[in-house]
Amino acid sequence: MKTKRLYYTDSNLLSFNSRIAAVSQDEDKFVTVLEKTAFYPTSGGQQHDIGILQNVPVIDVIDGDEIKHITESEVGKVGEIVSGRIDYERRHRNKQQHSAQHILSQSFHRLYNFVTMSVHLGESYGNIELDVKELSEIQIQKAEFLSNRVISENRLVQAILIHSDNIGLYNLRKLPKREGEIRLIQIDDFECTACGGTHVNFTSEIQMLKIISTEKIRGRVAVNFLCGQNAVDDYITRFKVTNSIAKKLTCSVNDLELHFDKLVETNKSLKRYLSQLQKELVPQIVQSLITSVEDINNTNVCLQKKVVLIKKISINFHWNLQKNVTEYQFSCIMIKSLYVVPSQSSKAPERLLKNYPL
Ligand SMILES: [Zn+2]
After folding, report:
1. Distance of CA 266 to CAs 65, 154, 262, 272, 276, Å?
2. b/e map of 231-253 (b: 16 or more CB within 10 Å)?
3. Cα 84 to ligand 1 centroid, rounded to whole Å
4. What is the 46 CA–ligand 1 centroid distance (Å)?
5. Are strands 4-5 and 36-37 parallel, antiparallel or unpaired?
């Protein structure tokens, strides 16, 4: 029996009652199939809803003719009527992301005839994969601008159920492969495409859209974007961080980049200065150590061999240095080896350690 999808005609429906059609167990998880449900199953790039069924948390919703609600304890028996409630926060963000994705895909399509090949709407950001190898900064800016314009125009978003025979009556961005009943999401006269997802009622509910990055996937360009509450959350975080740094640097947020560049320059010159100091200082430390060892270990052959070794290495100091090991660290390694593997007959290394604690 096919589960009736209540979200098809009402994406705002958050609570409902339904009779249990089937129950089963999959290892330690319980699977409940209802006659009808408002829970959206993971599909079409959109994540599933969460919520509760008869006070039992729904942790996953699996798509199919029969939509499966996954829980960690039993919801009820077959034939019983149970109540369901969708988690508003997650549904809200999913709706914002999905409608924003349609608008962004249509913007790239209208401006440059780029086709969206795949969609992924994650928890914190969305992603569309375009059938292009490269995307310029201007193209990104223009698509983002057009999307935000449509969002701010508060256009009507409607779900329409039609038969595939009537598909020619609609100006679709992409033709659906399936036949029979088809659900279209129409955003005023801007965008229309077949889709089974949950959507906002008006575009202004999306609040804003920001393209945050692009990446290469399978030789194509994937565009990552933030919108709605996710974008607001991101702004709050960025505001907090930039404000805190600006306070520490006693400058305005607008001057942060300038101050940061100056700090990087200062850091570079300090590193150069420190490196020079180490070059001058380390050979002196090593020489002082060698002298000290020679003074107290004239008869210790084993130790003297090591002293000779250190002398040789200190002479060839520069090309013996390993990557990411400073001269000082390198010197410490050599001095430690002198201490750690001393001649058994000598007590000198212990005295050495007292003089040069490392
Ligand atoms: Zn869609």
Report:
1. 64, 50, 6, 10, 15
2. beebeeeeeeeeeeebeeeeeee
3. 24
4. 8
5. parallel
CA 163–ligand 1 middle distance (angstroms): 18
Give me ligand 1 centre to Cα 196, in Å: 6
Chain position carrying tokens 């913007």: 107
**How do residues 286-329 score in pLDDT, each as one tens digit?**
666 556 554 444 444 445 555 555 555 554 444 334 444 454 55
Q: Angle, to 10 degrees, between the axis of helix 348-355 and the axis of helix 256-296?
A: 150
> 127 alpha carbon to ligand 1 midpoint, in Å?
12
Q: Which helix (H) or strand (E) holds 234?
A: helix 228-248
What is the DSSP pairing of strand 36-37 with strand 81-86? unpaired
Element (H, E) at 261: helix 256-296
Considering Cα of 138, then 140, then 141, then 145, what sign does the dihedral take?
positive
Q: How far apart are CA 134 and CA 222, in angstroms?
A: 10
What integer is the mean pLDDT of 89-107?
97
CATH tag for 4-86 (out of 3.90.1640.10, 2.40.30.130, 3.30.300.30, 1.10.10.410): 2.40.30.130
Report which residue type is found at 248. K
d(CA 94, CA 47): 7
- The CATH class, in words, for 92-244 is alpha beta
Phi, psi of 25 (to 5 degrees): -125, 135
CA 259, CA 273: separation in Å to the nearest integer? 21
Q: How far apart are CA 201 and CA 205, in angstroms?
A: 8
C-alpha closest to that of 95 among 155, 129, 49: 49
Cα–Cα nearest to 82, from 13, 33, 137, 26: 33
Tell me the whole-structure pTM to 2 decimals: 0.76
Closest CA to 191 of 120, 118, 97, 99: 99
What is the mean pLDDT of the segment spanning 261-282? 85
Sequence spans of domains, the chain: 4-86, 92-244, 278-355
Cα of 34 from ligand 1 centre, angstroms: 24
Amino acid at 126: G
Please tell me the predicted confidence (pLDDT) of residue 178: 84
What pLDDT, on the 0 to 100 scale, is given for residue 186? 97
